Automatic annotation (TrEMBL):
PANTHER family: SULFOQUINOVOSYL TRANSFERASE SQD2. Residues 1-168 form the Glycosyltransferase subfamily 4-like N-terminal domain. The keyword Hydrolase does not apply. Residues 186-344 form the Glycosyl transferase family domain. InterPro entries: Glyco_trans_1, Glyco_trans_4-like_N, Glycosyltransferase_grp1. This is D-inositol 3-phosphate glycosyltransferase. One of its GO terms (molecular function) is glycosyltransferase activity. Pfam families: Glyco_trans_4_4 (PF13579), Glycos_transf_1 (PF00534).
Length: 379
């Protein structure tokens, strides 16, 4: 979500618009305002303690966040990218007579449903809040057709107010590299938040099931989630039970530059998530010229073109995943074909194109008399 927000904001600014990105201050060391690029200002608002707080506790800060937002502007459009910020922004937008656009990026599902249905509702008001925002916002921007269907079918959003705007990828940052001859078995990579929804246990079990002669290491990049304390220890114990602990590396959260380097050096990108609204890392892997093996969940069916840019698996059987990984690693011709097609696919999806899709939505809401250059609040 953070990547989409920043990249779209910078592309909107490059097209002549002014964008304020509004977020909660989580440290006293953060400046009040940071100019990210010309036309894009990151504003830290005082809502709750100036320290990191588990995501599930942020609901208590919604009213205070709205109060801080009310001191800013005026804006032509409010675009919220999480239900917390939507609950803060929608009443304010109504008060000011300004359009409100909602994006979710992930949609909660009841605890009793399988993980394939979506994220767990980590705070009490989330499920009702998301449904209210889907029904009441002037527009909902979904990142994929799969997410759009969920907004309509589960949240009750009106189909004629849901627009699909796919993300983009920075093809100069995420780019292929020429493999070094004799580089060995190399590594597979998973880049995700470290929580059960992302299916990291399946990645470990799949790598363990790859024949030892071709088995790559597994690099797991991502930050541990405070809402799932002990999960990383469970994953390490799982790797140990399969006897591959020496070949599984947890490298923590990565900068964009560092992640790009890790992706282009990988032999295969794994995305074993139970549920994804799109799966941006699939597009970044494709841009890096690396074959992708992904679960057939949500928007991953759209992010990965099965048999063309990668492999999409209906099964969550580690043996099936190991078979797909082994086939790619053992067949240089196939790997090369997937690599080339993945790069070509990614080149058709950039951030200016994504921002242009947003502008279609914004201008339809603002009406024909609106100023061509808009002042946007993104939260």
């Amino acid at each position: 979500m953070n990547v989409v927000v920043r990249q779209q904001a910078e592309a909107l600014a490059a097209a002549g618009h002014t964008v304020d990105i509004l977020t909660r201050r989580s440290s006293f060391e953060l400046a009040g305002n940071v100019q990210l690029t010309p036309g894009v200002t990151l504003r830290f608002l005082d809502a709750g303690p100036a320290e990191p707080v588990a995501k599930g506790d942020h609901e208590a800060f919604i009213d205070e966040f709205r109060l801080r937002m009310s001191a800013l502007g005026p804006y032509d459009v409010y675009h919220s990218h999480h239900w917390f910020s939507g609950m803060a922004a929608l009443p304010l937008a109504r008060l000011r007579g300004v359009p409100h656009v909602q994006s979710f990026h992930s949609i909660a599902a009841d605890e009793s449903t399988p993980l394939s249905a979506g994220e767990r509702p980590e705070s009490p008001g989330r499920m009702a809040g998301e449904a209210w925002l889907a029904r009441e916002s002037d527009a909902v921007v979904a990142i994929s057709a799969a997410e759009a269907d969920t907004v309509v079918e589960r949240l009750g959003g009106s189909p004629d107010r849901v627009a699909i705007v796919p993300p983009g990828v920075d093809g100069s940052l995420f780019r292929p590299t020429t493999p070094e001859p004799g580089a060995g078995r190399g590594y597979a990579i998973v880049a995700a938040r470290l929580q059960p929804l992302k299916g990291l246990d399946l990645a470990i079990e799949a790598i363990a099931a790859v024949p030892e002669a071709v088995r790559p290491d597994l690099v797991i990049a991502g930050d541990a989630s405070a809402d799932f304390d002990g999960y990383v220890d469970e994953l390490k114990a799982l790797a140990s039970r399969h006897g591959i602990e020496a070949g599984v590396r947890f490298v923590g959260p990565q900068s964009r530059v560092a992640l790009a380097a890790l992706l282009r050096g990988a032999r295969v990108v794994l995305i074993p998530s139970h549920s994804e609204t799109f799966g941006l890392v699939a597009l970044e892997g494709a841009a890096s010229g690396v074959p992708v093996v992904a679960a057939a969940s949500g928007g991953l069916r759209e992010a990965v073109l099965h048999g063309d840019t990668g492999v999409v698996l209906e099964s969550r059987d580690p043996a099936a995943w190991a078979g797909a990984i082994t086939t790619i690693l053992s067949n240089p011709g196939l790997a090369r074909r997937l690599s080339v097609a993945g790069r070509e696919h990614a080149e058709d999806l950039d951030w200016p194109r994504s921002a242009a899709g947003l502008l279609v939505v914004y201008r339809a809401l603002a009406g024909p008399g609106a100023d061509h250059h808009q002042h946007l609040a993104i939260a």
